[in-house]
Design brief:
It catalyses: GTP + H2O = 7,8-dihydroneopterin 3'-triphosphate + formate + H(+). This protein is an alpha+beta fold. It is built from nine helices and eight strands. The structure holds zinc ion.
Length: 228
């Protein structure tokens, strides 16, 4: 159960429950041989299959505007929007000594992210808010951003994405005291299905002091609600 693993899921989306958009595991389900094929061959094969999909839909692939689409989609899948599947693209998180002895909470809020729902392959996008309490080492702020982007660039469910980011930060920072909140729009809810353009889905990951101390958690929540 997700609820026993330090994650609270506030669903403001009815459809989200209705379609049972809950993932099956914390790890992205990948096959053992996932990266035996190189990126260029993947692009070539996806291009071929996507051309077939467009052809089946009755589109005229000799049209100048459509001709390049299969290649563009294939390249976008492998090199951009799903590039976070491949561990070789994982950002190396370099730690720095915390010279100021800053042992308070550090919050990075409003990190924009774009992901894709693994059930429909349409965008999930929104903002992530991340916090940690340094155990003596700190990480460059842009690295937090890159970790969020890396896990976003996979077919995802929002709960798993939130936990993958939280667990990676724990590992990279060598601390249990990590919190992540993600507030996202799901295009599978807004552009199809119930066509609800207003609802967003909020997921959270609280570990260490953020889980055990209400005061710490509330401090984080207060910071992310501050206006700039
Ligand atoms: Zn979906």
């Amino acid at each position: 159960m997700l609820s026993t693993m330090g994650i609270d899921i506030a669903r403001s989306s009815f459809e989200y429950l209705g379609e049972d958009h809950v993932g099956t595991s914390l790890e992205t389900p990948l096959r053992e041989d996932a990266f035996e094929m190189d990126d260029d061959l993947k692009v070539e094969l996806i291009e071929k299959h996507f051309r077939e999909i467009m052809h089946i839909m009755g589109l005229d692939l000799t049209d100048d505007s459509l001709k390049g689409t299969p290649h563009r989609v294939a390249k976008m899948y492998v090199k951009e929007v799903f590039s976070g599947l491949n561990p070789k693209n994982k950002p190396a998180a370099k730690l720095f000594e915390n010279k100021y002895k800053y042992n308070q909470m550090l919050v990075e809020k409003d990190i924009t992210f774009h992901s894709h729902c693994e059930h429909h392959f349409v965008p999930i996008y929104g903002r992530a808010h991340v916090a940690y309490i340094s155990s003596g080492d700190v990480i460059g702020l842009s690295k937090i951003n890159r970790i969020v982007q890396y896990y976003s660039k996979r077919p995802q469910v929002q709960e798993r994405l939130t936990m993958q980011i939280g667990n990676e930060l724990k590992e990279a920072l060598g601390t249990e005291d990590v919190a992540v909140i993600m507030d996202a729009y799901h295009m599978c809810v807004s552009s199809r299905g119930v066509n609800d353009t207003n609802s967003s889905t909020v997921t959270s990951f609280f570990s260490g002091k953020f889980e055990s101390e209400e005061q710490t958690r509330n401090e984080f929540l207060k910071y992310i609600s501050l206006k700039k």
